[in-house]
Amino acid sequence: MSNFRYKVGPIAKCVFQTQSPRSNLWCTLMQYRFYPRPTSFPDYFQNPIFRKEDQAKLIESNELTKLAALPVKPPAAYETSSVYHDPLVSKLINHVMKMGNKKLARNLVEKAFENIKRIQIERYHLATTPEEKAKVVLNPKDILHKAVENSKPLLQLLPIKRGGITYQVPGPITEKRSLFLAIKWLLEATNDKERTIHFPEQFAWELLDAANNTGKVVKRKQDIHRQCEANRAYAHYRWQ
Amino acid sequence: MFLCYNKMSFAIKLTLKQALPIASRSSIILQNVYNYSSKATSQDNFYNNFTDWETLSKKKKVSKAMRAYLERAKEHDEFMKKQQFEYNIGKRHLANMMGEDPETFTQKDVDRAVEYLFPSGIYDRAARPLMKPPEEVFPARKAAEFDEAGWPHHFLFYTGKPNFFKLLYDITENIQDLYKYGDKVIRKKEVTDEKLLLNITGSVWLTKDQLEQLLVETVTDLEYDNFKLAMDRLVSLPHSHIYKDFIEKFRKPLATQRFALEIPKPSYDENGNAFVTTYECLRKKARGDVTIKSPGTGKITINGQDLTYFEDTQSREQVIFPLIFTGMQDKVDIVCNIEGGGPSGQSGAIRWGIAWGLRSFVDKDMLEAMQLAGLLTRDHRRRERKKPGQPGARKKPTWKRR
Description:
The structure holds two protein chains of two kinds.
Chain A: H1 3-6, H2 10-18, H3 21-33, H4 52-60, H5 64-68, H6 87-96, H7 102-126, H8 130-135, H9 140-151, E1 155-162, E2 165-172, H10 175-191, H11 199-211, H12 216-230
Antiparallel strand pairs in A: 1-2
Chain B: H1 2-42, H2 47-50, H3 53-60, H4 64-97, H5 107-117, H6 134-137, H7 162-188, E1 203-205, H8 208-215, H9 221-236, H10 244-248, E2 251-253, E3 267-268, E4 274-283, E5 286-293, E6 300-302, H11 313-326, E7 333-339, H12 343-358, H13 364-372
């Protein structure tokens, strides 16, 4: 069955004699280069904890020794331990990105942040009393967090078919889906604009509006909540 | 490999030893029977009324199954001997071809020789030429599972997979025991010591192949899942540490990353400055080397340019990631040469190279922190190939009814 594997032809011998050991090494290296490599890490690899504050938390809760024995995945190409790294911002960049053009997406988001900063600094200088000045939030990332927090829906409507009629049944929403909807609505509201206005400008306005609990996105969220309230009578269809 | 061979030959030899005397004895018995019966037919017909020759001879006869097994075992033994002989000859041929000593030619050398003499770009590793000792190529076989009368030794013989089902049986029995033990503990209001508790992080269950090798039986996917489920339940019980030995038989430790063992000592140049060079920094298609010079000012040189070699911010952040993490950003100088791949791959390769080189300049706590941050793990992932019949590696054509 495997006899042919044990025997070696005479041609190979000639090849060996003509080649130098240096090319032998090169040959094996080249071969390894094109061997298949796994495209993902095995399940038992742990996610990396690459931020100092997260590691400090682990040390406090004494879970570090447990994790130290396990192999760890390398951090992704967009993750750093820098103070400028923010998971929500990288998530937002991925939502803005089209056709894998991350450079442009990042540029657009950063420009929007710049616009927010400009608008807020202007407001800061227009404010007359120190109390009013203290109220103005100058950090664009804080405004983004506030805006997303304000746009997150608490309930969702699920279409459920009962007796041939589709009812919009209110139900709870997962944290992940609520974050997804908030970012999606913010971007949808931004893209619903005049052609002459650019994305960063409009996005900055939308974020400022949402952070202030006003604007299209917050209205949309409140509409959903209102409809959920109106459809309370259908709630039992979720389990009946 | 060697171990495997030992086990194998042990199984076969043992059965032959057990079986051979029986066989020789049986032939004698058969002769006797023949003599008696011939006697009986010729003259003493009335003896038949006193002794039942047929049942007597049947009792001592070797069963058909045993005889068939003996034949098979003998055949297999001969086959393996032949394969071993051919393997040894093949090994000598290979050694001669490679110009090395055939006596000290090991399996490692064989693999190297086959790879060199039969270079193969075939995608599937299993389809590439190989030469392995026959014990590895041909699966091990079980010894006789029944006695000479044909009766099975094992009480689960008729399940077809006695070892596997015995294992499931044992697990269940252990679980029942643990329930009883737990009740007893509650009744006596005892408190178990924290130190005794079972800690199984750092090891995984045996894979299907490993389990099959251990049991010498084929196991289906469903059966393997059942095994894992049962074992998981056993482990989840509060007093599972009682069966620690039993559980650990079916777990394999994960390869721990021993970063601390072989940290290189930095070399010194003519000015007395320490430096460490990491070669073969790989990520995606990028390859390069990174040199870290110890008393430095945080100057980074990539292919003769500074950090602006990378046009996008993300790649620049990646390069300085390990420096920021360890707080060495203005204590060392970095020089790297990198080629191949795109900005993401190149920056990833440099990131790993810097982290790997910094091991020589940081303390042990920081090393552990770097390990936990995954900076010392090499990212070996590569682009997955496109498959024929579909538009991408995983993407399938749009489904159409007709």
